Amino acid sequence: MSCGFNQLQPDFMSEGRRLNKTGIRCALAALALFGGLLEMRSTGALEWEPVEGAQQNISEPEPIKQDTQHGTALTWTSVDSSDATTQEQQGLNWTAVSETDQTESDSINSAVVWEPIQPGEVITAEELEVEEDPDEVLVTTEPSGPTFANDKAIWRDDTWHPQISSLVPVGFGPKGTMVSFGMYGWDCIPTTAGPCRQPSDLNDYLEEVEQRGEAEWEGSIGIGDTRQLLGLTVTGMFEETNLPLGGRNDYETENPRGILDNYYVGMHLSRSIGDDTSVRVGIKNWIDVRDEDQSGMRPKSSYGVISQRFRLREKQSNWFPNLYLTAGLGNGEFRPVDKKFKAVIAGQRAQGCITYGAPKGKACSTETLNKIGGRYFSYGELVPIGALALEVYPGFNLIGEWNEGNLKAGFSVRPFKNAGLIFTSMWGSLLKNCDWGCNVSIPGLKGGAPIDEDLTTDRIKWSFNLTYNLSF
Fold this sequence. Notes:
single chain, 3-stranded antiparallel sheet, alpha+beta, 12-stranded antiparallel barrel
C-alpha cells in the first residue's frame, strides 16, 4: 500500500461527500508510527549532540568550535543510545582551548574551542587541597591581659617582664602566689664613712666601693588577687652582716650574728581598678630587728602610689608596645636629703644635744646620734615620687625615676623569656641639687646651715638590682 498526501484529501462524488478507504488506512498507520516515536523518546534511545555542520565520528568526538559571533547556528546530530547511557553515568566534561595562531587583532572575533576530557581527570571542590607555605605561619595573637606585680617586676600574659621602677613602689599587685628574691647594691652611699667623691682612676673607684658601697638581700611574697579583692605583699630586707668590706662592717665582725638577726619587714596592699590601673599603699621597714646603736638604720617609710599601663601597640610583640606611669606620695627614705637633714637637727634639739641653732646643751654620744638618726629619718612629711618606664621591646625597659628629690635613669632587662630573672641598672643624683651640697634653713639659725658633707656626693651614683621571680 502506498500512502501519499493526496490520498488523505477528500474525494467528492456526486451522491455526496465521503473519504477514500485507502486514505483512512494511511492515516491510522501514521498515528501508530508517531506513537512509536514517542515511546522511543521516553526510553532515552534517541539523543542529540552538536556537530560542525557535517556528520561526525561519534566514538571519537572531535573538538567542537562554538563561534562567539552573533547569527551563527549550531548543528546537532543524534548519538547511539548506549553511548548516551555511558555519558549520562560518567558525564561529559569540557575545557577551553586557546588558539595559538591568532593575532591580537583577531582576538575580538576569536572563537572559544572546547574539547572533551576524561572523567577521571575532573577535580572536584572536595578533592582540592590548598598547599600551605611552610615559611608562612598563621599566628593568632590573643589580646594582652591584665597587669600584675609582686614587688617591681611585671607579670602579664603568663610571663615575667622587666621592672618599671627601681626604688619607687609600683601600684600593681599580685595574682595567686608570687615569690621574688635577690640583691640590691650601690657603689656608694654617703654615710659617716664619708661622702661619695669623684674617683681619679679605677683603683680609686674600687677603694671607694669597698668603703662606702652597700649591698643587701631582698625578698618578697605576694598573695591574693588584686582584681577580685586585695593583694598582700610582704617584703623583707636583710642587711649584709657577715661579709665585712673595708671598715664599714667592723661592728659586725666584732659582734657576729646570723642573717635573721638583722632584718626589716614591710607590708603592702594593692587593688586593681582596671586591667591596666592599680593602686598600692604600704610601709617599708615597718618591723625592724636591729641594734639601734649601730649607724645606717633604715627609716620607716609609708607611701601611696597609682600605676597606669598605656598600650601603645595592639600587637605586643612590636617595638614600643607599652608605657608605664607611676605617681604618688611617700615619706621616710623617699624624702630628699635636705628634709632628712632638717629632721635629724630637730631630733638632736629634742634630745638636748648641741647642734645647729642650739649651741647650748650636751654633747650627744655616737650611740645617741645613731638612734636619733634612725628615728627621725622615719616617716615625716610626704613628698612626690614617681617613675616612667618605656617598654622598648618585650624584655627591655627604659626607666626614669623621681625619688629622694632627685632624678634617676637606667634600664631593666629580662635575659631569658621563659625565666623570671630580671636585672636592673640605674644611675642616680643626676641633678646637682642638695644631693651635691646646699644650705638648709634652720629655725633660729640665720643664713641656715650647710648639709653635712657625709650626706652629699659630687658624682653620679650607680645602683643595681638582680632578682628572680616566680609565680604559682
